[in-house]
Amino acid sequence: MEHAEAPPEAERPSRLRALGADIGPKLFITLVAAGVSALLIPWITGKWQDHKQQLELRTSLASDMSRAYTGVIVTGRFVTGGLIYSGSSSQVENRAATQNAWTAAVHDWLVDSGTIGAQLTGRYGVDGIAADWREYVNAVTRYMRLGSQVAPADRTALLRDEKAYVGAAPFSWSPLTRTKNFKNDPAFRASYTALGAWLLGRGDGLVQEELRLSPRV
Length: 217
Fold this sequence. Notes:
Layout: H1 8-80, H2 91-124, H3 129-146, H4 152-166, H5 186-211
């Protein structure tokens, strides 16, 4: 006995179920992929932009730091070594040129270092590198004062604080106790140059530290 063929109406549900079974997973995957893309791509873009801004901030701050301390320390070395003068035969004019160079360098240093300190505090907080920078600013400022004529009591205090900051150093401190005519003293110039070189190295260390941090943007 032959079976009668199923009517077309009976085949439709089966075909719909087969079509749904085929399209359903694909549609689900498509919807999930669209949702992930809508959320993930903006997140990745935001992270990339934050990273780019952090890199730019780190580089800018590091450049400002390096320029500030290098400029003032080199000027201090030049002034103490008698390498800055007016070009005139007049000693008065040469002394004025030296004094002007020293004053301008210290002024620029105090302004620039203060601005950098504010930026470091704003980007990284009051502790950490911002605190290290404040101590370093004081050390470089003392260095500049040691290269000028100051009262004996002030020089003693400056040297005490500078020794505490530097710690063990591969140079002699005793020549730096001289209070006058030290520009003509080779021992003074040697110790002063060595102290400046140490401070340059310390500044470079702070720059490298800053370049490894993640600033607030």
